[in-house]
Design brief:
single chain, mainly alpha, 9 helices, rod-shaped
Length: about 300
């Protein structure tokens, strides 16, 4: 048993009408039981696809060229995003939306040919799967395999979670099947009918954001101007106080010089007085000695 055997069998089973899948899968597993029990068990374990996944698998087999066109735009979109090419990214994003809408419409038509009326909910899942395949490389491989078990969804944050028949399906290419119509209608990109309204709404939103930004920045400017005015007034007040302190310092320095001069004069007077006291004391002592001699 090889993975190729399982992939070939899965390729055949997932190409069947949805109503026949379970019966044919079980019958094939029963046939294999005698010759390859392991392969029989793996075939038996193949999950029946959801309606949306079956529609995408059908689309891949019937309209492989259109699916490759979608995936090609997706690859270009991822490259533009990696290169931060804004203009290219916007153009490809518009093309992506138009293509997924057009291909989804074609997928609904194919399902109707097989006897399945696709609801809006299922159509949305199909379109979401195509979108996921455009934004995520692994999702593109899963779609291209034609072995999807469940629809895909891209959050734009985490990698897309893929559910395929078996892990080896990623990298496998589904075998094309012939459509009932010998010449299927050529796919044309359908312009978004709401494109103008969406563009106007987007422009109005940008204007509203710009208005809000003008208000915010004006308020910030007014607050900054008021603070600058207050600080300017405070600066002038401090400069005036500094000038007053300088004048006071000049006065004090002048008074200090005058006091120094007066102190010098006073010290001279003091020194003179000290000499006079010493001379007076010597004269007294001399007089006292003379009196003592006379009285002896």
């Amino acid at each position: 048993m090889s993975s190729k055997d399982l992939l070939d069998l899965a390729d055949q089973l997932y190409a069947l009408p949805l109503s026949e899948f379970t019966v044919r899968r079980d019958a094939r597993a029963k046939e294999l039981k005698a010759s390859d029990k392991e392969l029989a068990a793996q075939v038996k374990a193949l999950k029946k696809p959801s309606i949306a996944a079956w529609v995408v698998n059908l689309l891949v087999r019937r309209e492989s060229a259109q699916v490759e066109q979608v995936l090609g735009v997706g690859a270009a979109l991822r490259e533009a995003q990696a290169n931060l090419d804004g203009d290219e990214l916007r153009a490809l994003t518009r093309q992506r939306r138009q293509l997924t809408a057009a291909v989804t419409t074609r997928a609904r038509g194919l399902a109707a040919e097989e006897g399945h009326r696709i609801t809006e909910s299922v159509a949305e899942q199909v379109e979401a799967t195509l979108t996921a395949a455009m934004v995520d490389e692994n999702a593109a491989k899963a779609v291209r395999s034609g072995l999807l078990v469940a629809a895909l969804s891209a959050t734009g944050v985490d990698d897309v979670e893929v559910q395929v028949a078996c892990p080896e399906a990623l990298g496998f290419y589904a075998s094309p099947t012939e459509a009932e119509e010998p010449h299927p209608p050529e796919l044309h990109v359908v312009p978004d009918p709401d494109a103008e309204a969406k563009a106007i709404a987007a422009a109005e939103e940008r204007l509203a954001q710009a208005d809000a930004e003008v208000v915010r920045t004006t308020e910030a400017l007014e607050a900054a101007a008021a603070e600058a005015s207050d600080l300017e007034a405070r600066s002038l007040q401090l400069q005036a106080e500094i000038e007053e302190l300088r004048r006071r310092l000049d006065d004090l320095e002048s008074r200090s010089e005058e006091v120094d001069d007066e102190l010098s004069d006073a010290e001279d007077v003091k020194a003179e007085a000290e000499r006079a006291v010493r001379e007076a004391n010597r004269a007294r002592e001399s007089a006292a000695a003379a009196l003592a001699r006379l009285t002896d």
